[in-house]
Predict the structure of Class I SAM-dependent methyltransferase.
Amino acid sequence: MSTIHWTDNDTPRSARWHSESAAPLPRRTVVADDRMKADDAYRQACEGTALLWQGDFHNARQLLRAMGHRVDRKPPGPGTSPSESFHLHRRGSGHRARVLGKLLVLLDEDYTLGLRRAPDVRQACREAYGPATGPTAVSLRELLGVIGAHQWRRRGVEVPALGARIHPHYGVFAPVRGEYVDLVARTPLPPAARHGLTTSTAFDLGTGTGVLAAVLAHRGIRRVVATDISPRALACAGENVHRLALSDRIEVSSDPGLYPEGRAHLVVCNPPWLPARPTGPVEQGVYDPDGTMLHGFLTGLSAHLRPGGEGWLVLSDLAEHLGLRTRQQLLDAIGAAGLHVVGRSDTRPRHPRAKDTSDPLHAARSAETTSLWRLAPAP
């Protein structure tokens, strides 16, 4: 367990250090309050000094925004290729996160945030971090994410394909991009599943919130096994399944492998879309450095399909537009796994970033297509 140390009125203090993005322990920590100027805070943060805030909570948020404005004054320049632009953008995002992550707050041993005008964050922190284990220092930026996740969890995300809400947990990717859910909801089921709905089985690999498993059960699949390697995702999916009264149809499995035991008429996988390194728990739903989950799904599919079954790969081509993967590499991986493409359904993104011309990756995002690839063992 890492411990952060600082001095308060000549008294040595310490607390547990926690960072969901695995940020290293600050080299130096000083106390800061409402007298701190944004330029001074920004300079010290860039030098690696952490600022433990003891002033007003809303002033801390304003300071964080002011530091962000100073980081954004020097955005990364465009690259000579889409892939270089992407890596420069990721590097700039990492620098921004490191600088803003230097503004810290102290949570008491029961997760109370003892700042003036601070909200009650105890429940949000228990949901994200589990039981409290003593005074803990976290970045304000991370804590704001924890608070936001608590609000998402309480309100839920409306999923038209279900006519219900899915409630994401902290660290679990929320189904805010509904186009991939709609693809799974409207693509015709394989004959092997459609002709035997009362006995049909489907696997949902990397279930996350459990939204796709719920869609499959909603479509009539009798038994759905939902897997994930994340304990947070398993807890989230289990809660959503119970909330939707689908516990008799969906089994949330903690099997350590990607696939559960047995075979299914339908295997659905929505792997991370971009081969890049994630910097935090939520990003694990988007970035996978070596495409490990994608290739694991492809290589294991034939051995886990029943006769006449299909595998549904839900994948964006954003990586292709960014120069991180080619279409031919994807087709080669499908062929190398002994599979062939039965069909494909496409849709265009509806999220606001696809139309944001100020986004440095706008050209790639505006050309993005999300596809559901229907795969089966090669004849």
